[in-house]
């Protein structure tokens, strides 16, 4: 701000209120102003010392106030605020730039969780061995059952020791298990019961050779293993003793496999309601319906065309019982594996797991099928 805003040229060398002398330290007088009071363009002066004079528009308004265009000219005028116009245009929201189209991922196919090619190959190989031994020499098939029992016992006792520290004695279990299968074929049900009792006694005695810590736990696990694997498998030997024994065993195997296949096929394609999620999350109610339907249809055909004196309606009941027992047996072993914290009992069979993973539905189904055969068509 320069002094021309105050309406009159100041005195040379003086920058203060009227009636006072030069201010100490003030700059010397500069060149004179022209006739119109204009300051030479190249001359600069320091800012004046402003006195405590009321602002223009107050009680002491004078001609200096007329030079101020920002305030009112008279006392009674009330300053009117000037409305401020927003000259800025409202900004429109920026529209997002169109992004490049993302590729749509291809729908994922359901997976069985196993190597199906290996599973099918192993299944076909086992089926060929079973059929060849079953219809050529019955004794050879009894040996196949005994070998499967021993391997299953080895897998079960190994897992019990690894995961729970349970030392079920394998030697008396293996010897007694094979003896049960052979005794059932040679001496019938009485021979199987005697072999079972002797096996349990051998487990008690064998475990005495080790320290007593965990004795009750180990012998209990051993007795359970003896009943669960070899004793239930003995009923297959009992079926084989009949005149049409090979066809009864074949019917038993076919119905169990068909039940498992129907449960897998229908459950994999349509399954949405869990059957027992805490035990086996992969099993569904739709799969159970598939197991029952497939097993009943196969049972009607087998009883009508393979079993002497059998009828189709007996096959329907047989198929229903097989589907129920096979499902319960599968859930039972799933409960054991879940308690042990494992997925499979072994790795001997590629695509299947271990021997026990294939015997899980067969073992509890064997006594059910044997009993219904005895009821429907007799023991021999």
Automatic annotation (TrEMBL):
Locations listed in the record: Cell membrane
Keyword Transmembrane: yes
Gene Ontology cellular-component terms listed: plasma membrane
One annotated GO biological process: CDP-diacylglycerol biosynthetic process
Family matches, as InterPro entries: PC_trans
Biased segments, Low complexity type: 21-41, 83-92
Known catalytic reactions: a 1,2-diacyl-sn-glycero-3-phosphate + CTP + H(+) = a CDP-1,2-diacyl-sn-glycerol + diphosphate
Molecular function in Gene Ontology: phosphatidate cytidylyltransferase activity
Keywords of the record: Cell membrane, Lipid biosynthesis, Lipid metabolism, Membrane, Nucleotidyltransferase, Phospholipid biosynthesis, Phospholipid metabolism, Transferase, Transmembrane, Transmembrane helix
Highest taxon of the lineage: Bacteria
Pfam families given in the database record: CTP_transf_1 (PF01148)
Top enzyme class: transferase
Bilayer topology term: Multi-pass membrane protein
Segments for region (Disordered): 1-112
Keyword DNA damage found: no
EC id: 2.7.7.41
Family label: Belongs to the CDS family.
Protein name from the UniProt record: Phosphatidate cytidylyltransferase
């Amino acid at each position: 701000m320069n002094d021309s805003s105050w309406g009159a040229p100041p005195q040379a060398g003086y920058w203060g209120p009227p009636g006072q002398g030069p201010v100490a330290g003030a700059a010397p007088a500069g060149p004179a102003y022209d006739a119109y009071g204009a300051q030479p363009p190249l001359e600069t002066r320091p800012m004046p010392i402003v006195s405590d004079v009321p602002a223009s528009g107050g009680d002491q308004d004078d001609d200096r106030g007329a030079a101020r265009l920002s305030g009112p000219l008279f006392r009674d005028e009330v300053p009117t605020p000037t409305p401020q116009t927003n000259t800025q245009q409202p900004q429109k929201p920026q529209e997002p730039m169109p992004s490049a189209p993302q590729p749509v991922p291809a729908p994922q196919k359901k997976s069985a969780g196993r190597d199906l090619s290996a599973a099918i190959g192993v299944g076909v190989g086992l089926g060929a061995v079973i059929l060849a031994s079953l219809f050529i020499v019955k004794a050879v098939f009894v040996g196949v059952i005994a070998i499967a029992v021993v391997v299953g016992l080895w897998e079960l006792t190994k897992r019990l020791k690894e995961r729970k520290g349970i030392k079920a004695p394998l030697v008396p279990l293996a010897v007694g298990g094979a003896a049960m299968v052979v005794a059932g074929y040679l001496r019938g049900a009485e021979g199987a019961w005697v072999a079972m009792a002797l096996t349990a006694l051998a487990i008690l005695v064998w475990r005495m050779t080790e320290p007593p810590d965990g004795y009750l736990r180990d012998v209990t696990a051993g007795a359970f293993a003896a009943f669960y694997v070899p004793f239930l498998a003995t009923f297959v030997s009992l079926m084989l003793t009949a005149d049409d024994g090979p066809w009864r065993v074949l019917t038993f195997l076919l119905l169990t496999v068909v039940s498992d296949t129907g449960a897998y096929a229908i459950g994999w394609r349509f399954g949405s309601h869990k059957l027992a999620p805490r035990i086996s999350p992969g099993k569904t109610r739709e799969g159970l319906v598939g197991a029952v339907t497939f097993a009943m249809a196969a049972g009607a055909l087998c009883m009508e065309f393979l079993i002497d004196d059998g009828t189709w309606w007996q096959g329907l009941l047989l198929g229903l019982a097989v589907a129920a027992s096979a499902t319960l047996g599968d859930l039972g072993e799933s409960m054991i594996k879940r308690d042990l914290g494992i997925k499979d009992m072994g790795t001997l069979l590629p695509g299947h797991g271990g021997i026990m993973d294939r015997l899980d539905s067969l073992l509890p189904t064997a006594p059910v099928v044997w009993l219904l055969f005895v009821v429907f068509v007799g023991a021999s």
